[in-house]
Amino acid sequence: MTQLTLYEEAMCCSTGVCGPDPDDELVEVSAALDQLENEFDVDVSRANMQHNIEEFLETQQIADLVEEHGPSILPITVVDDEIVAREAYLSYDELASTLEDSPDPQEA
Amino acid sequence: MTATQTPAKEVVEPNSEDTEFVFFSGKGGVGKSTVSCATATWLADNDYDTLLVTTDPAPNLSDIFNQDIGHEVTAIDDVPNLSAIEIDPDVAAEEYRQETIEPMRALLGDEEIQTVEEQLNSPCVEEIAAFDNFVDFMDSPEYDVVVFDTAPTGHTIRLMELPSDWNAELEKGGSTCIGPAASMDDKKADYERAIDTLSDESRTSFAFVGKPESSSIDEIERSASDLAELGISSQLLVVNGYLPESVCEDPFFEGKRADEQAVIDRVQSTFDQQALATYPLQPGEIAGLELLSDVGGVLYDGEEATVDVDAATRRATNEDTVDFDSFTDGDAVAEELVPVEETRYLFFTGKGGVGKSTIASTTAVSLAEAGYETLVVTTDPAAHLADIFEQPVGHEPTSVGQANLDAARIDQERALEEYRTQVLDHVREMYAEKDDTQIDVEAAVANVEEELESPCAEEMAALEKFVSYFEEDGYDIVVFDTAPTGHTLRLLELPSDWKGFMDLGSLTKGAAPANGGKYDEVIETMQDPSRSSFAFVMYPEFTPMMEAYRAAMDLQDQVGIETSLVVANYLLPEDYGDNAFFENRRAQQAEYLEEISERFDVPMMLAPLRQEEPVGLDDLCEFGADVTGLDGVGEDDREEVTVS
């Protein structure tokens, strides 16, 4: 199974539905991730700095990047240990094509 | 003396090997601390190892036991088997914040840490920190019984509700709006155990403390039914502070006493499933072991209460009759109420039962009478503006039968529906603009819809509605009869908080949501003392005063809003109650008026205890002329107001 991890800045609610207006970008990302999980053999997880700081600390390449560039480097998208995007979220279409290109580790 | 088995005793007395828990809920000022202290003392006197935990932000255990207590478990000198601890919710929240931030220091610089710190300065974090403390003491095998003098009712209920929500969230694997999912996962077992214990009637007793007043009992009924929805039934109701028969010697107080007894009768029939205990009003404040043991004896051993006027701390022995009027200046009060140049917003805030709705309505009537176009709005789901005006009051502003005066009541469910519709429309619109995506829009909308089932959404809906009243055109004055203080603060704080979140978001994401500016304006308006007046309504006693003061300080520190006015309600009338009992009570009120005046240092509106609360326009108008300082402020001398 492919592992997709999003490392995100500190935030209250990663769904984006938490405030006077929904956060469009986060709403989109949440929906995209849900759909990807249904359509692909992928395990999606999200780590944000406020709620899951240990995942940042335990993942060397992420910890190094944040230490060097500060949180503005976030969000970082990682597919099977490889960083595929930084500083911005990928759209559903971009994520889908990344996953299509990604070799399934079990078959490889 | 032979001790009688009272129903209350059966509820609080431990009957198993396991530690048992007793929770007292009730609004500030009803005597919750007194009853908790008396219960803990009674249990200790009966040889149970007892711990008393208070999370009251303005604790007075030290006064009651005449000993410093504080943030550590402390043995009570004069009561063997009894220990107590005062948990300061602010300290607890700060500790929690620091624990959360500590690991981030490895990755982030000072400036970034500060940003995260600001984000953590949210009501959510305070809730979770408070609950954490509470869970800590649910595992206290060294005691036979732990007595909690919990935070006020609404807050308590929320604390009870949250763990179930959290567990649901954690099972979904998502992060929650309320706290760090990972660290909470560790605590999940603790939380679950706490919830199990809370709903186990053989180990946990819930008790309410209230005053013999309809509003107090109504509030308890609501809270008890909220608890019941969570599978927790309350087992004991203590009605505290009824007027003793022996001191009611004139028609005014005989009438007041009859009203109270009618409430107690009603309680007896409506709360028939639970134990009921009553304790009279004392001429002074309840402190010291002797009075505590009197309370315990009455509640749990069925003894007769001792009301000893001579033994009470006499406050007015050498003074002349108390002169309440010297504390107020009608013109100074009126100045805080009338518009200066633009629409003025008046906020009456205070705990339930302090007469906030009546004061807000009275002020609104007086302002309308003086010729100002006035709207009075309640955001309190429990407020009965319709009863006060004897006119229907709905979600949209409508006239209540007097020229220049409209009233409205925020309907929570309708507000929530409006908010949901607005959010979902927004999401659909957003996707409509991107027609080349393969995203399943309906699934995305369903996702958002599910997220809207949260307590957050309710809060936001109420806030949206609240803010919308700042956009109502055509009024010189908008009077808010706000929800009880804690809730109000959250509501009022949120605009600032959200703005904070938005600004932080925009730093990294480039664009702030469109609504940011709207909240800016609202906050600016609330911070401008010539456009907004914040009035704290309270009665002149220790706990209500401290709660109001703390709320006022929070407003100032967190939102930059200064208090403009204090309303001291239910002052004992000077024409009645001509005996030592009431003289002592009046002198006590005067002492607190003095302290309120020093602490707040703003004009004071004084409102007497009345035989009946004013109902209908004529009553309100007459009452308003007495208390608002607006009598004589009329059409002629008012300046033209620019309606914004």
UniProtKB/TrEMBL annotation, chain A:
One of its GO terms (biological process) is response to arsenic-containing substance. It comes from the Archaea. Signal peptide: none annotated. Pfam families: ArsD (PF06953). InterPro entries: Arsenical-R_ArsD. GO terms for molecular function: DNA binding. This is Transcription regulator arsD. It comes from Halorubrum californiense DSM 19288.
